[in-house]
Write a structure and sequence with these properties.
The complex is a heterodimer of chains A (324) and B (499). By secondary structure, chain A is α/β, with parallel strands linked by helices. Chain A is 40% helix and 22% strand. In chain A, 56% of the residues are buried. With 499 residues, chain B is mainly α. Chain B has one domain. In chain B, strands 1-2 form a two-stranded antiparallel sheet. The N and C termini of chain B lie far apart (61 Å). Classes of the chains: A alpha/beta (324), B mainly alpha (499).
């Protein structure tokens, strides 16, 4: 396990100043030490979420110190059992996880469930984009869907590992337009770099990834976005949603925080209160904007209900894709 | 001349005292983490990401690039001295390098590695400055079909390390391929050969296998055959530095290694290991001293692969700086550092941030010089390590191997694997199986398989895709010639001898 406490304490104080965040008056219930569990390697999306949370929580005086523990592996499937067992009952602890973990637990046929952890809050989402090389004959999502309906095997689509959010989006599109999901031609690449290279080199017909990863290539005129999976048009992004084009698909790669099982209701409610308050600060809004995250805050029981529906939905799509 | 002007501007930025200091800190830190097995440049930079809140971007990237290049230098040291490669790109270095070290030429092996790294790093950096746009256009022509053909070519290099018995060599190769298949399959998301152990879902780290087979296996073998008072290691024979002949023998491999490393490193799915295999194979075929390979250690087998691995490190920066594509773990972390400055790396990076890009490239030149100055004097010190009596030295190697392996993922499962594979390594040595094919199989097997399946998915199941695409066909023809031509040549010669 990698403990970064000493390291981060100095740095994030400076972060707060550098970002011009200023400081709010200390709150009555300041948490002395918040422990965060990240079931992924340093540098990834969950880790960035944890680090951003830390910066804002400290800048607003909600916590005095934060300790982050990384346990990487298998889309969170290696870390989750440690959090469920070893961190059981510990108040002031949070795990950062998201949609990828739901998919990886199902695809790996893990006996564990993300809902065994106590849902505290859904925080952010990244919508995905369907993009094609600039020279592609597809002008919009309808062209893509027409080709998919004609022969799905002739439309290879690049993305991240099988069963991940990119694959799930392709399955969802297929399902929405009546193409059997199991017939889609999905080419999984290890990491965003090789997938993007295959797309830029026109090795595949289209690619799916977080919109942020495509942004610069689109500005440079090398790629064209056919559609984004957001619920509505986004400021500053010149691309229609799937729904606008008559394809009933909406998908966010969401991330949220969980408390370990066995915590008291008081502890759970304190965490929910702290995170809700944090999510309403301008500092958090600024942080999300900088990282291209859409704020989709949902706390407590609402989050739990969302999770139950999400697990069922993802399980259904993975089954259709032949992965579960 | 855009490249030249840019480079001059870059030197103006990189040569400020503060940036020189960051460069020195980065290269020193990089050398240190390269020497320590386990802690790689990706993890180090990830842990240093919080400094991006404090330091201006150019300085931070000079620091990160120093760490990256430095780790490539340092990685060869433990490979050569202790047969314990710190990262996968220096596994090949240990094959000849450690043999040289045991036969009194540790100084020369370390020197040819350091100077070769300098030569390759410098040529590679020149390549970034002047050739990047062309190299990238060419690299994007490589799709899964071409990568599969490249893997076929790389597999022919196995013949250089098969040893005396083809059956034993191929057994080792297939063992390696099997080890490489363990984990979640990329194309289907299903676990293979994991026996329900979650820690195996992400596969077995090739470093754990290399250290287990080479370092632990060898330690066990030596313990089993050790006789009191008998020494098997000659610490130093002749001069500490390279002799005139050794210089002469190194220059060709340095340049050829660079020629393999830079373009393959620049390919988005090329990686750092394949050029080291190709370089080793080429040097073994071209050498005038074939009898030294695998026995007392041939300097060509160190010079070439070391140059290849450093040139590939420079190559990796090409798609990163020109297209914003991260093609290695380290590049991915560096890209996320760009983002925390609000800089979006992409095809427009050079236009929007010329000072940053050229400052970074200039600092790579400076970092290379620093690394050479830093590493050459250390050779005398490193070589003294071999004066340690065998039992203590091997005990030290075990400690190093154990700490390093634990450092990779902080998982005790990796330690169990390390020692289990160590025992396998001992048995392989005891029964005369070569260990290098295991590593080659483990690295190439999964790459070949995934690229094959990606190519087949894209072509909707049409296997002729490997022969209808010109680049793929060319590479496959070269591979076939490499295997068949020497045999045909031998047959023709035999026939002439009869007639």
């Amino acid at each position: 396990m990698i403990s970064r406490r000493d390291f981060v304490v100095g740095a994030s104080g400076a972060a707060a100043m550098a970002a011009g965040l200023g400081s709010l008056p200390a709150q009555a219930q300041t948490v002395d030490l918040l422990k965060m569990f990240v079931p992924a390697a340093p540098g990834g999306g969950w880790d960035q979420t944890a680090r951003s949370l830390e910066a804002v929580l400290r800048a607003t005086g909600a916590v005095n110190g934060v300790q982050i523990t990384n346990v990487p592996g298998a889309g969170g499937a290696v870390g989750l059992p440690q959090f469920l067992n070893n961190w059981r009952g510990q108040g002031n602890s949070l795990m950062v996880a998201g949609m990828v973990m739901v998919g990886s637990l199902i695809a790996n046929k893990s006996p564990l469930k993300i809902t065994t952890a106590v849902p505290v809050a859904r925080l952010t989402g990244e919508f995905l984009a369907l993009a094609v090389p600039a020279s592609s004959p597809f002008k919009d999502a309808k062209d893509f869907v027409a080709a998919l309906k004609a022969d799905p095997t002739k439309v290879p689509v690049a993305g991240g590992s099988a069963g991940g959010s990119d694959h799930i989006l392709l399955g969802t599109i297929a399902k929405a337009v009546g193409v059997p999901a199991a017939r889609v031609s999905y080419v999984a690449f290890a990491g965003g770099g090789p997938a993007m290279a295959a797309l830029l080199g026109s090795q595949v017909a289209a690619g799916i990834s977080g919109y942020g990863e495509f942004g610069e290539q689109i500005k440079a005129g090398k790629l064209r976005v056919l559609a984004i999976s957001a619920d509505k048009r986004q400021d500053g992004i010149d691309a229609p949603t799937f729904k606008e084009q008559g394809i009933d698909v909406e998908l966010f790669n969401w991330r949220g925080v969980f408390a370990p099982p066995g915590v008291s209701d008081a502890d759970r409610n304190a965490m929910i209160a702290m995170i809700s308050k944090m999510a309403a600060t301008p500092q958090w809004a600024e942080m999300c904007k900088q990282r291209d995250w859409t704020q989709i805050t949902l706390t407590g029981d609402g989050y739990k209900a969302f999770l139950d529906a999400e697990v069922a939905r993802i399980e259904g799509i993975l089954k259709d894709l032949g992965l579960a | 001349m855009e490249g030249f002007n840019g480079l001059m501007m870059g030197f103006g930025i990189a040569l400020t005292p503060m940036n020189l200091l960051w460069c020195l800190v980065g290269t020193t830190l990089g050398t240190a983490i390269g020497v320590l097995p386990g802690l790689g440049p990706a993890l180090t930079i990830a842990l240093l990401l919080p400094i991006t809140f404090k330091v201006e971007p150019t300085s931070a990237f000079i620091l990160f690039a120093g760490i990256y290049y430095g780790a490539m230098y340092g990685g060869s040291t433990t490979s050569i001295l202790l047969n314990t490669p710190g990262e996968s790109a220096s596994i090949v270095t240990s094959m000849e390098g450690n043999k040289m070290a045991r036969n009194g030429r540790a100084g020369a092996a370390l020197a040819t590695a350091a100077i070769g790294s300098f030569v390759a790093g410098t040529i590679g950096t020149l390549g970034i400055a002047f050739l990047a746009p062309f190299v990238v256009d060419w690299a994007l022509k490589f799709g899964p079909a071409e990568y599969f053909a490249l893997m076929v070519l790389a597999f022919t290099t196995v013949s250089a390390v098969l040893g005396n018995s083809a059956v034993r060599g191929l057994t080792a190769l297939f063992f390696g391929i099997w080890l490489g298949m363990i984990g979640i399959d990329l194309q289907t998301g299903q676990a293979r050969f994991t026996f329900g152990v979650q820690e195996l879902f992400d596969g077995i780290n090739v470093i754990v296998v290399a250290v287990g087979l080479f370092a632990v296996g060898e330690t066990l073998y030596n313990a089993a055959t050790y006789k009191e008072g008998e020494t098997k290691i000659t610490p130093l024979k002749g001069s500490l530095m390279m002799t005139k002949l050794e210089w002469k023998r190194s220059i060709g491999p340095w340049l050829r290694g660079t020629a393999f490393g830079f373009p393959i490193g620049a390919m988005p799915a090329g990686g750092a290991e394949i050029p080291t295999f190709l370089s080793y194979y080429a040097e073994k075929k071209l050498t005038k001293y074939p009898e030294e390979f695998g026995t007392v250690g041939a300097i060509e087998g160190v010079a070439g692969p070391e140059a290849a691995n450093n040139a590939s490190a420079a190559g990796v920066l090409v798609p990163m700086l020109t297209l914003g594509l991260p093609t290695s773990a380290t590049a991915a972390i560096m890209l996320s550092a760009f983002q925390s400055y609000g800089i979006n790396p992409g095809p427009l990076l050079l236009q929007t941030q010329p000072a940053l890009v050229w400052g970074l490239i200039a600092s790579l030149f400076i970092g290379n010089v620093m690394l050479l100055v830093l590493n050459l004097p250390l050779i005398g010190l490193w070589v003294k390590m071999l004066n340690i009596p065998a039992p203590q030295l091997y005990a030290g190697i075990l400690v190093f191997a154990t700490i390093g392996t634990y450092g990779i993922s902080q998982s005790y499962i990796d330690l169990i694997l390390l020692y289990a594979i160590g025992i396998v390594g001992y048995l392989m040595r005891r029964y005369d199986f070569p260990t290098a094919p295991v590593i080659i199989g483990m690295i190439l097997g999964p790459l070949a398989e995934q690229n094959f399946r990606q190519a087949m998915t894209i072509s909707a199941g049409d296997w002729t895709v490997f022969f209808t695409r010109p680049l793929s066909l060319t590479i496959i023809v070269i591979s076939v010639l490499l295997v068949v031509a020497p045999k045909l040549y031998g047959m023709v010669k035999a026939r002439q001898a009869v007639a």
